From TrEMBL:
This is Phosphoserine aminotransferase. The modification N6-(pyridoxal phosphate)lysine is found at K199. It catalyses: O-phospho-L-serine + 2-oxoglutarate = 3-phosphooxypyruvate + L-glutamate; 4-(phosphooxy)-L-threonine + 2-oxoglutarate = (R)-3-hydroxy-2-oxo-4-phosphooxybutanoate + L-glutamate. Its cofactor is pyridoxal 5'-phosphate. It comes from the Bacteria. The lineage of its organism: Bacteria, Pseudomonadati, Planctomycetota, Planctomycetia, Pirellulales. Catalyzes the reversible conversion of 3-phosphohydroxypyruvate to phosphoserine and of 3-hydroxy-2-oxo-4-phosphonooxybutanoate to phosphohydroxythreonine. Keywords: Amino-acid biosynthesis, Aminotransferase, Cytoplasm, Pyridoxal phosphate, Pyridoxine biosynthesis, Serine biosynthesis, Transferase.
Length: 365
């Protein structure tokens, strides 16, 4: 027996229990190492093998071809806001085009502006970031440095169902931090996609960057060394000491996805089933629960909704807590409720939340 709750945290977030147990078993002494993984060199061949296995499992899950580099970096998704613009925009006359659909896109724009010309090609601020653009809602010039979007805005709970329209000559860049590995992706459509690990892919401390190799040479070599993707690529993510423990856990999560879940198509099916069960309760609550996102762009990962009042929201969070349903409070910037139901959230957790929501609505409406 453990005290583990159903944890709806937006990140760092729930991890597969089987992965946590494996980590626990190997923690004191990594098989073959005579020491904990935390205690061995990143140059140790056992760790190098762990790193390569993690990369290869990601390549196989997502079907990433040799045209792409897969890099493990530190600095969170936030460092990527700067790195992308430093590599692909700084020193050019081009514009970087941003589709602004929520809080994380806004932060990315702020950093990119320090590096060059940034155009906000679409902005859904007027409707409080509850929707996504169609191709008719923005234009992107053929000579843009890149077109940037966030595939899943974690705070608002809006998720693109497929890649936004982008001219073939322009690299498409995606912040996939909160929906990485939730479904198959046509990686070939991207110039670069990245994700911090602490939602679907592992613990905090590592970010995965998948980048088309021909873009590695664009950057001015005088940008700060850590930001320069080529350094990470050329040195197999060991340009400096990588976050060894986070990469190790990420590798295990990726193998769990492949072996226990059966791949990303299967994962998507489960994620659809889980999220739809909650959206159905919202839709059938006669307005007691109001979903934040427009129905056509509801996130599979972060289910965001409001209750009739702030008092009711507080009561919901508190009562949910006594039902072992944790971390449901919406982000401090938007309020309401956010149920983050990442890959590792078991069906039973979603079921328990759904039952609680139905019961809470019937007692309070
Ligand atoms: N982008 C998205 C979509 C996120 O959800 C987050 C983290 N919540 C970030 C960026 C920032 O990530 P980090 O804290 O790792 O910098």
């Amino acid at each position: 027996a453990t005290d583990r709750v159903f944890n709806f945290s937006a990140g760092p977030a729930v991890l597969p229990e089987s992965v946590l147990r494996e980590v626990q078993e190997e923690f004191l002494c990594l098989p073959g190492a005579g020491a904990s993984l935390l205690e061995i060199s990143h140059r140790d061949k056992l760790f190098v093998e762990i790193l390569h296995n993690a990369e290869n499992t990601l390549r196989s899950l997502l079907g990433i071809s040799d045209d792409y580099s897969v890099m493990f970096m530190q600095g969170g998704a936030t460092l990527q806001f700067s790195a992308i613009a430093a590599n692909l925009l700084r020193g050019t006359d081009k514009t970087a085009q941003y589709l602004l659909t929520g809080s994380w896109g806004k932060k990315a724009i702020k950093e990119a502006k320090k590096e060059g010309k940034v155009v906000t090609a679409y902005d859904s601020a007027d409707t409080n970031y509850d929707r996504l653009p169609t191709a008719a809602d923005y234009t992107c010039p053929d000579d843009a440095a890149y077109l940037y979007y966030c595939s899943n805005e974690t705070i608002q709970g809006v998720q693109f169902g497929s890649e936004p329209e982008c001219p073939a000559s322009v690299p498409l860049v995606s912040d996939a931090s909160s929906d990485f590995l939730c479904r198959p992706l046509p990686v070939d459509k991207y110039g670069l996609l990245y994700a911090c690990a602490q939602k679907n892919a592992g613990p905090a401390g590592v970010s995965v960057v998948v980048m088309r190799k021909d873009l590695l040479d664009i950057a001015d070599p005088n940008i700060p060394g850590y930001l320069h993707y080529k350094n990470h690529h050329d040195n197999d993510s060991e340009w400096n000491t990588p976050p060894t423990f986070a990469i190790y856990v990420l590798g295990k999560v990726a193998r769990w996805l492949q072996n226990d879940i059966g791949g990303l198509a299967k994962m998507e099916e489960l994620n659809r089933e889980k999220s739809q069960s909650l959206y159905k309760i919202i839709d059938e609550s006669n307005g007691f629960y109001k979903g934040h996102a427009q129905t056509d762009c509801r996130s599979l990962m972060n289910v965001t909704f409001n209750l009739p009042s702030e008092e009711m929201t507080a009561k919901f969070v508190s009562e949910a807590g006594s039902h072992r349903l944790a971390a449901l409070k919406g982000h401090r910037s938007v309020g309401g409720i956010r149920a983050s139901i990442y890959n590792a959230m078991p069906r039973e957790g979603v079921q328990a939340l759904g039952d609680f929501m139905t019961d809470f609505a019937s007692r309070n409406s």
